[in-house]
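Researcher: I've got a protein sequence and the SMILES for zinc ion. Could you write out the 3D structure of the bound complex as structure tokens? I'd like something to compare against our soaking experiments later this week.
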Amino acid sequence: MNRRREYARHSAKVTRGQRWKALRMQALDRDDWACVQCGDRRRLEIDHIEPVKDRPDLAYSLANLQTLCGRCHARKTRIEVGMGQPNPAREAWKRLVRETGRNPIEHERKSDA
Ligand SMILES: [Zn+2]
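Model: Sure. Here is the predicted complex with zinc ion in place.
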């Protein structure tokens, strides 16, 4: 599928470099080397919460990264390219943001600066 390839190409630019390797380790450490969605510890991949294609400025922001297993990552990508169901994690996230009245990611980004 063309759109899926387009996403892969955008993130490949980021995940090739040395800078990514260090950041990837930081994300894995932060997430305790487990998928943040299902807790699986096998086949871990680092996902951009906001896709690189949409937010290239967040490509190297730790706050925009999450650890996912291969299966959860594939599901998320499928949803992002417009195939599949609405993402329950994203819905839960939106609910959390609504309830707490602020976006923890935004907060984290500010304290990064
Ligand atoms: Zn998972």
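Model: The CA atoms of residues 35 and 70 lie 9 Å apart. Helices lie at 2-15, 18-30, 70-80, 88-100, 104-112.
Researcher: Great, I'll pass this along to the crystallography team.
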